[in-house]
């Protein structure tokens, strides 16, 4: 029975990897014939048609008359399919570093970022644990882990990010309190987290306000990007984990603002393609370095926390 579950997980993982690779190929070239995609990825045209149907339903491309055509929009870059293929080594390093801040017995919120999704492959080492999330792909990844209690947040389902959002989701979050919230961001501008979707910000703000400790995972490219809607300044987080390719001036600037910065070392995997590489085992560890002095004092009173939350709530 267990082997059947493992086979299904492996099949879904290969399907996700293939769809990501197909979407990146189409976005890179603008338009690609479906028979060429089947040949390129060593699969049948029927399988490629099914993959393209799913990607089209998510608004990532258009399929017409034997050709897959890329769509140029901010939704494409916001989609989980697109994001999952970006900075993969950095995301693995950040996720492993985040494990050091999770303790057995805690309740944690996990957001819809593909960086945080990497935690799913390692989090079994921290059970017993309660995980609260609005992300369907995370729910499917975590539901079979022994010792893990999964709280699945419902609401209106958004296919482009595989997540439930909206008023129903926020109402459910507001009734909960967690020990830790682990999240990532689309962009950092003026040392503040920004996102392309306002609905995403509303969900993350609710999780932020409902958590005792907030941890931000940021790869170095986020310091070079811009997005529309702000959430909170980096000074509002208890820990900011960056990868080892982050510019030294960015780290120094954050430290000067008393931000606790942890640097996660990237361990590149040579000889593996993005499409065919296997997931690292849940026991693998990353190298981290806390680049600051002792962390700033936590918010110690309900009044202090209400005052801070009101600044971005």
Largest sheet: 8 strands, mixed
Number of domains: 2
**Which percent range describes the beta-strand content?**
15-25%
Rg calculated over all Cα atoms: 20 Å
- The SSE string, one letter per element, is HEHHEEHHHEHEHEEEHEEEHEEEHEEH
**Highest CATH level, the class of the largest domain:** Alpha Beta
Secondary structure elements and their pairing?
Elements: H1 2-29, E1 31-33, H2 34-40, H3 45-57, E2 61-64, E3 67-70, H4 74-78, H5 80-84, H6 88-98, E4 107-110, H7 114-117, E5 129-133, H8 136-142, E6 148-152, E7 156-158, E8 163-165, H9 167-174, E9 178-184, E10 187-189, E11 192-195, H10 198-209, E12 211-218, E13 229-233, E14 239-243, H11 248-256, E15 261-264, E16 288-290, H12 302-312
Parallel strand pairs: 4-5, 4-9, 5-6, 9-12, 12-14, 14-15
Antiparallel strand pairs: 1-3, 2-3, 7-8, 10-11, 11-13, 15-16
Short summary:
With 313 residues, the chain is α/β, with parallel strands linked by helices. Helix content is 38%, strand content 22%.
Description:
- α2 packs across α3.
- The radius of gyration is 20 Å and the shape is globular.
- The relative contact order is 0.11.
- β10 and β11 form a beta hairpin.
- The strands form four sheets. An eight-stranded mixed β-sheet has the order 6-5-4-9-12-14-15-16, sandwiched between helices. A three-stranded antiparallel β-sheet has the order 1-3-2.
- The protein has two domains: about 70 residues, Winged helix-like DNA-binding domain superfamily/Winged helix DNA-binding domain (Arc Repressor Mutant, subunit A); about 230 residues, Rossmann fold, CATH 3.40.50.
- It starts with a helix and ends with a helix.
- It is an alpha/beta fold and about 325 residues long.
